[in-house]
């Protein structure tokens, strides 16, 4: 049994990760401030299956507040740092809070780790660091110095901060660049869930752009396999600093996504088209050869199947 700290455990990816690691017999200390970016009620539902588990402890704390670190437990084997302000468009409205939570929060976690002899960390980075990269698919060696949103800037900054802490303090770190993750418990601000909820109740959906933008949607179970494999990789190796894409490598156009949701929901189409939004990238597609090589990562859920599972979950919830 290992003892993990999972920051952002009450969110979409964090609650799935916590549940999975508990099911494998690990001990988890979950840290989350139930940030009001979306409702506490949704987050409480996310964690209801494990919040009373004997191997789980909850710390409701804000990672930007350095004074909270005295509450952290000792004997941690690995930190899975997922807590962040995660929306792209809202980051343009409020860049300061993104810098505070994502960069200062990460700095605090790294300082605590180095002061408390924690030597392993998995960090949630994002495909958004690639901006409007012209080379496809996006590979870890591509230039990532052209962010087009404050959110992307903070994620790239954290990768660099992590590198510094790895070099100065010998913390092994894997930065996972997640490509648009979807599935049960998906964040309510993300397109698939937003569209599906509106379509379900017969309301119009608003799309930005001509429908040709595309995302490399990656099903949550595949992301979880990548996280598990990263934990194993970092456990077995020392001196690790890696940046690894976790994507499906099979982009889906916005138009195709909408057509499929309408088809699976059996509702008539009702779409309002608006201009592309600043901060939104045109296209994402992961080169996953590094994940295949280091982690044996192989996404197994095709988009239609994953969307079907998500819609079934939404119906029940
Ligand atoms: N979902 C995706 O498609 C996606 C893609 C790329 C990267 N990511 C990254 O993965 C991570 C998890 O994303 P998610 O979709 O589960 O988001 P989420 O918003 O559901 O989860 C993030 C959690 O962090 C918590 N949090 C926010 N600020 C905090 C603070 N100051 N102190 C403590 N906790 C705080 C929130 O309350 C929330 O529960 C994030 O770092 C996100 O940037 C997600």
Structure description:
By secondary structure, this protein is an alpha/beta fold. It has a domain at 3-182 and 217-248: Rossmann fold. The protein is 40% helix and 18% strand. It has helices at 12-23, 40-47, 89-93, 95-115, 150-169, 191-200, 220-236, 254-265, 289-295, 303-316, and strands at 3-7, 27-32, 56-60, 78-81, 120-126, 172-178, 181-182, 205-208, 214-215, 218-219, 241-246, 252-253, 271-274. Strands 3-2-1-4-5-6-11 form a seven-stranded parallel β-sheet, sandwiched between helices. A two-stranded parallel ribbon has the order 7-10. A two-stranded parallel sheet has the order 8-13. The mean pLDDT is 96.
Gross morphology is globular
Mean pLDDT across the residues is 96
Ligands in the model, by name, code or SMILES, are:
nicotinamide-adenine-dinucleotide
CATH superfamily of the domain at 3-182 and 217-248: NAD(P)-binding Rossmann-like Domain
Question: How big a fraction of the residues is strand?
Answer: 15-25%
Question: What value does the Rg take, in angstroms?
Answer: 19 Å
Count of alpha/pi helices: 10
CATH class of the domain at 3-182 and 217-248: Alpha Beta
The largest sheet has its strands arranged as 3-2-1-4-5-6-11
Q: What structural class is derived from the secondary structure elements?
A: alpha/beta
* CATH overall fold name of the domain at 3-182 and 217-248: Rossmann fold
Q: Which CATH architecture of the domain at 3-182 and 217-248 is right?
A: 3-Layer(aba) Sandwich
Low-confidence stretches: none
Assign a percent range to the helix content.
25-40%
How far apart are the termini? 33 Å
Main sheet attributes: strand count, strand direction, barrel closure: 7 strands, parallel
